[in-house]
From TrEMBL:
Protein name as annotated: Metallo-beta-lactamase domain-containing protein
Highest taxon listed in the record's lineage: Eukaryota
Domain Metallo-beta-lactamase residue range list: 75-122
InterPro entries: Metallo-B-lactamas, RibonucZ/Hydroxyglut_hydro
Coiled coil (residue ranges): none
Length: 158
């Protein structure tokens, strides 16, 4: 089954549109440690999936990647949206590849952090029913809060 057909089947079966209320309520927290950012793009043709593109994003500490996350694009659909501190990179990547919709796998901020920015860029966002409900109710994700603050990311869903 083609990747586009699978995406369409998923959307009809388990997803619903998301009305995200994920405004940023804080800015990045200053850190004395030398944090940076790193990201790279690749095509998954080597796996026999030449319709699939991937971008890997991570914070760095002394040049060593930390807290990495990837987003995948199949046709005009992005799977997950990464941490919010990669907002400009993720939105640019989506625009470059002509993304029209974002499918979230779940609510954690490493998967849903750029939903609002992508919606503002014109993308439709869909998610499993429970994920959509959690995002619409703007529920906090406590386990990630401490990690994000330590890395200088600041809160993005609280």
């Amino acid at each position: 089954m083609a990747a586009r057909q699978l995406s369409s089947l998923f959307l009809r079966a388990v997803a619903r549109p998301v009305s995200a209320r994920m405004d940023k309520t804080g800015s990045a927290i200053a850190s004395a440690l030398p944090f940076g950012k790193a990201w790279r793009e690749s095509n998954m043709a080597w796996l026999g999936a030449d319709e699939v593109n991937r971008a890997a994003f991570s914070k760095t500490l002394f040049g060593t990647p930390l807290m990495g996350v990837g987003v995948y694009v199949v046709g005009d659909t992005m799977v997950d949206s990464g941490f919010s501190f990669f907002e400009s990179e993720v939105v640019s990547y989506a625009q470059k590849l002509g993304v029209k919709r974002v499918v979230l796998t779940h609510f954690h901020e490493d998967h849903s952090g750029n939903v609002k920015a992508l919606q503002n860029a014109g993308c439709e966002v869909v998610a499993p029913r429970l994920t959509a409900k959690m995002m619409e109710e703007h529920l906090p994700i406590h386990p990630y809060r401490h990690i994000s603050k330590q890395a200088g990311c600041g809160p993005n869903l609280y």
